[in-house]
Design goal:
The complex is a heterodimer of chains A (253) and B (172).
Chain A: H1 3-26, H2 35-63, H3 69-74, H4 94-115, H5 121-149, H6 153-166, H7 178-185, H8 192-209, H9 232-241, H10 243-247
Helix pairs in contact in A: 1-2, 1-7, 2-5, 4-5, 4-6, 4-8
Chain B: H1 8-15, E1 34-40, E2 43-48, H2 57-71, E3 77-81, H3 94-103, E4 105-106, E5 142-146, E6 154-159, E7 165-169
Parallel strand pairs in B: 2-3, 4-7
Antiparallel strand pairs in B: 1-2, 5-6, 6-7
Classes of the chains: A mainly alpha (253), B alpha/beta (172).
Chain lengths: 253, 172
């Protein structure tokens, strides 16, 4: 794989993570457990969608095959998607939705911080733009983990169960493959060690305040999403998201 | 039409009359969206920057900027979108902040966080919600009710004295 293809894949991964999580959060529009939560979820979805557009537009330019953001979003099937498995986990309960968000936000925040120093100026610009939004997301999701974890017996139990359910999906972002390693070598992406340490440090701090028990960082972790091996669920997410382009290929506003 | 005598200052003043589509009391210049106006030969190049990356108003703003300038006879026009440095509410003018307040939206009350100083910004307790004055009665006895409002750039507050709920334009 040449350097440009590796960079295309790396940028595509960032765009797909933001897109799939945005799509999942937007499915909760009008269904949030409280009006404030509903607005927050959909605003976070909107921020992530904006970030998706920056990533996928750049990915399309790197690839040079004439695919723009829309073509990449709507004309790829599940095995061409490069998002991590964490973001395709279901909105099973509000506890799981918020736990998924907190894990994602924490990693996203430290990754964007690392990408600020990317040798690729376009990536550094997208990270700079995203980081302000992600900071706000992480403050909110961290607050909610503490409020719900250190809340009632019922909310505590639900948050602990959600953490244990989702834990095996937190490791994939730290399992670097040839593409990730090529990005690190070129100074495009941050090395895994610092990123991983920052992630677990922040999660353990928030969990301690939330009176939750953090599962072991050494636990066995799921992998495969970054290479296009997804759960069945991604197919359903895409079927809904891509409905219009599948029914009317090439339709435009 | 050709407007050879137009100066960047003239273009800035025209853009100062283009309202934000979502909050029409503030212009795109007062909001800090317009970053540069320059002439490349006889082509006018306007550089704008998005507020929030997903803000649906950006396309409308770009179109409105183009329309306003073409209406003044500036046919050779290019609108460039620039991401870095990322937009901050620190670029909002005092005129803009006063207009927001008059419209019932509390303006950003402090300098936005310095991007390099964010490390402590997500630690619990490192960040304190700012003291926001009620745009209705001026009381600082107010409370955050929702971290997000009707748009990504706003949060919801309520005044504990006059009981009025209001929007707060967040520092960003």
């Amino acid at each position: 794989m040449d350097a440009n293809t590796a960079k295309f894949e790396y940028v595509l991964r960032q765009g797909d993570n933001a897109l799939i999580l945005s799509q999942q959060l937007s499915q909760l529009c009008g269904k949030g457990p409280a009006l404030e939560e509903d607005m927050a979820l959909t605003n976070v979805a909107l921020d992530l969608l904006g970030q998706t557009r920056m990533w996928l537009t750049y990915a399309g330019e790197l690839e040079g095959q004439g695919r723009d953001e829309d073509r990449l979003a709507f004309h790829r099937d599940a095995n061409a998607y490069r998002n991590v498995l964490l973001v395709e986990q279901p909105n099973a309960s509000y506890a799981e939705t918020m736990m998924r968000q907190f894990f994602f936000d924490t990693w996203h925040y430290f990754l964007m911080q690392g990408l600020l120093k990317s040798t690729d100026s376009r990536i550094a610009e997208i990270a700079e733009k995203s980081l302000k939004e992600v900071t706000y997301h992480l403050r909110r999701s961290g607050d909610l983990i503490v409020r719900l974890g250190d809340g009632t017996d019922v909310s505590h139990a639900k948050m602990q169960a959600a953490a244990e359910e989702l834990w095996m999906y937190t490791g994939e972002v730290f399992i670097y493959d040839d593409i990730d390693n090529a990005m690190v070598e070129q100074g495009i992406a941050p090395p895994v060690d610092g990123l991983r340490a920052a992630f677990f440090e922040h999660v353990s701090e928030i969990f301690a305040e939330a009176t939750l028990t953090m599962p072991s960082p050494e636990a066995w972790m799921q992998r495969g999403g970054k290479q296009g091996r997804h759960s069945e669920r991604l197919g359903y997410i895409l079927a809904e998201m891509q409905f219009l382009q599948r029914a009317y290929p090439g339709a435009e506003w | 039409m050709h407007a050879p005598s137009v100066t960047p200052d003239q273009v800035w003043s025209w853009l100062g009359e283009v309202p934000d589509p979502e909050i029409p009391v503030i212009s795109v210049v007062d909001l800090g969206i317009v970053r540069d106006v320059a002439f490349d030969g006889d082509e006018c190049v306007v550089t704008i920057t998005p507020t929030y990356s997903g803000c649906p108003a950006m396309q409308v703003i770009s179109d409105a900027v183009g329309e306003a300038l073409r209406a003044r006879g500036l046919d050779k026009l290019r609108i460039v979108t620039q991401l870095s440095p990322a937009w901050t509410t620190d670029w909002m003018s005092e005129t803009g902040k006063a207009a927001l307040k008059g419209y019932g939206i509390a303006p950003p009350v402090e300098q936005a966080i310095d991007i390099s100083g964010l490390r402590g910004g997500v630690k619990r307790g490192a960040f304190k919600e700012p003291e926001v004055a009620c745009p209705n009665c001026g009381s600082k006895h107010t409370q955050l009710t929702s971290q997000f409002g009707s748009t990504p750039c706003k949060a919801l507050y309520k005044c504990l004295d006059c009981r009025e709920p209001f929007d707060y334009f967040k520092c960003h």
